[in-house]
Amino acid sequence: SEISNSGVDPSTRGRRLDETLEVLRAVLTGEEVTHHGEFFTLDQARILPAPRPAVPILIGGRGESAIRRTARYGDGWLGIFCTPRRFSETRTAILDAAARENRAPDSFGVNVWCGLDTDADVADRLVGEKMQALYQLPRDKFRHLAPSGTSEQVAEWLNSFVEAGADNITLVPAATSMEAAIEHTASVRALLLEHHS
């Protein structure tokens, strides 16, 4: 994996990420930071000028670690491969955990793989081929997580994420060309904005 190839013990990646987020949150303030941790040492480190507005820290992932990290360090969460129900449950868990940390993450998004085409069968085939190539998964294994169809059908499928509290939806479209992907994605965006304005 990329972790072992870089000479890092993979068993430390969770602790390493936690410490990275702690250091990142501190240095982004523009204040002087001294930190002596398990993985990183900084003496009087400072970023000048401090970014304004602050760079948002979005935490990705699923499960308890993502919930804990978002509550403690994140300005928001970016889910992937989850149903609207799981998205809503995770969002609620993050807000509850963040309240215990006296924090309030305010950005909740989701990455969604999708197939887009004017022909729903073509769209389904395109996203199926993409997922098979990347993850060696047959289409049936992720059909409930990766919509396909026309722009209208995909927008309709995504409505439940907006209703579950998603304020940012990132599409990873499989289409017949880059131009078609851009065109269909713009259409999905317009339909969602129209429906939720």
From TrEMBL:
CDD domains: Tetrahydromethanopterin_reductase. SUPFAM superfamilies: Bacterial luciferase-like. It holds the Pfam family Bac_luciferase. The keyword Oxidoreductase applies. The keyword Transmembrane does not apply. InterPro entries: F420-G6PD/mer (IPR050564), Luciferase-like_dom (IPR011251), Luciferase-like_sf (IPR036661). Residues 4-123 form the Luciferase-like domain. One of its GO terms (molecular function) is oxidoreductase activity, acting on paired donors, with incorporation or reduction of molecular oxygen. Keywords: Oxidoreductase. PANTHER family: 5,10-METHYLENETETRAHYDROMETHANOPTERIN REDUCTASE, PTHR43244. This is LLM class flavin-dependent oxidoreductase. It comes from Rhodococcus oxybenzonivorans.
